[in-house]
Protein: Aerobic-type carbon monoxide dehydrogenase small subunit (CoxS/CutS family)
Organism: Limibacillus halophilus
Amino acid sequence: MRTLKDGQKHPISFTLNGEEVDAYAEPRTLLCDFLRHEIGASGTHVACEHGVCGACTVLVEGKAVRSCLMLAAQAEGATVETIESLSNTDDEFDDLQAAFHEHFALQCGFCTPGFLMTLTMLKRTGRRYSEAEIRDALSGNICRCTGYKEIVDAALTVLGPDSLAAE
Ligand code: FES
Ligand code: FES
């Protein structure tokens, strides 16, 4: 097992939004803090810092995870995706972001990256979801502003039974 002396950092290499990252992190550094403060991927938001609110949700190996419950060192060799990965190179919204915009599914927007990353994981399954399934999937994401109806409505336009994405 590799051991570090006081003050030493772990070398970390992983893929962030399609780009290779080679960096160093203290053993105790959380992935969310590493992304925001060391890499500059500040679209990932941090609120509760103990796994309750879902604001910090990112995709690791395609799975939605709370980056406040994961150490940066645990990302070694992994594929990590944040909200910054959703817009294309022309800075246009992806379909989920556009749906949130059209349905007024955000106010302050602090929770929005977490919601969108959770929904992105669902979208990639390629299947359709009922409203109940979408509500269940989003039950780990908390919004203090909007209520959830607009968020669920936006999700349904992309992921729901009648979505264009499913045709
Ligand atoms: S900041 Fe990670 S779940 Fe709330
Ligand atoms: S839009 Fe403000 S917390 Fe959700």
Observations:
- The chain has a mean pLDDT of 93.
- The chain has two domains: 10-85, 95-159.
